[in-house]
Amino acid sequence: MSLSENPSVFSSRKDALSIFQAGVRAADPYQAVKNCLRANDHQVEFLLDLNNKTQKRKGLWSKIHLIAFGKAACAMAKAAQEIIPLDLQSINSIAVTNYENITAVEHIEVIGASHPFPDQAGLDAAKKCAELITLAQENELVLVLVSGGGSALIPYPADSISLEEKIATTNLLLACGATINQINCVRKHLSLLKGGGLARLAAPADIHALILSDVLGDDLSAIASGPTVPDPSTYADAINVFKDQNIWHKVPANVQQHLENGLAGKIPETPKPGDNVFINTGYTLIGSNAISLNATVTTARTLGYQAHLYNTHLCGEARSVAKQWAHHAKTLICKGIDQPTALLAGGETTVTLKGNGRGGRNQEMALAFAIAAEQHEFTCNWIFLSGGTDGIDGPTDATGGIIDQDSLKRMINAGIDPLAMLNNNDSYTALKSSQDLLAIGATGTNVADLQVLLLFPNSFTNTNS
Q1: How many C-alpha atoms does 301 have within 13 Å on its Cβ side?
Q2: In the chain, what are the domains?
């Protein structure tokens, strides 16, 4: 049976999508900047952040240099440009984003670059950012608009390392299933901008960063690899990332040499907490996965679901996470479900590549969940969605996956072996065969991933439309 032939399933899938999209809307970068930035002819003011962790900051700066990078760079830059008086704005403001999210912004140069793998355009953009930042003077402000994806979009490797070597290093880390924190630790120690490097270049000018977090727990040193904040990690930590993953021997020789020189003290460490370069820096957290996750809960309840947070920091190997979640759901089902129930999660899982298929962490989680649900013999109807809030899941045109109790049947009817596809990391092909790819296109924001599991009593028929 195709999706169009089952109105109840189709309608329930629409609910899952509505819940997910509510989370994406909660991370709207344009509105987030509008909510926290104020300005008049004489003064710029940054309001309290979402968690009330930072104090308000005001300044009478003579000029403001605007540098934006990340998947939300254009939307954030547009909002800031509309707020800050034109006569205060530097004529050299710049926004760097991934190709899918390029939009024109008045008075700001927009540059497209590659994500998740850096390219020459990104390197050129990073050099331009560095050049503009060094022009900033005392009593001027460098306003940095940071969003997810910034690490890959402004690669500026150390002089001894080529862009190709940095890309090869990133590939190694992604393929072995390294966490985002591990990847960022390495990036900081191979880069001139990351790990507080941007703040070091900007001194003696002031810096303030508006940050849209794609990192669980909102660790500022991890978001876009922390270009404006202290870096507590070391060269030793970066080397241990490779050794712990047993891939040090695969690391390009120049990268090895650079890290070893840093370990030996021949290269300066990234600036640490307490460094003087941070005396005139500040930040405001304007959006996060937690905020988006709360929005999914609210929307699920509005749609009539009994909504619960399953996990606010979903991480680990995607297929393992799916198995654990399916086991939890089976326990609930066995206890009895008397009304439509939504289990919601947010986070960022990883995938260890062992096959040569195509997919992303959200697609892999969806496929793995479908297999686990069948193994647990779910006795109720269900929908599971896993998607990236940026609209892009891995090197594919999909956002993630949205599956139901009949997904495996549709795959098998299409001649697909679901387990074989999972083992080959080919979730894209499997989900495409069963009409289960989630594809909403680039969203212009990025606060990691969101997951939605809907469980229905056996007697329930969804009439929502």
Answers
A1: 8
A2: 3-24+290-456 (3.40.1480.10), 29-156+191-233+270-287 (3.40.50.10180)
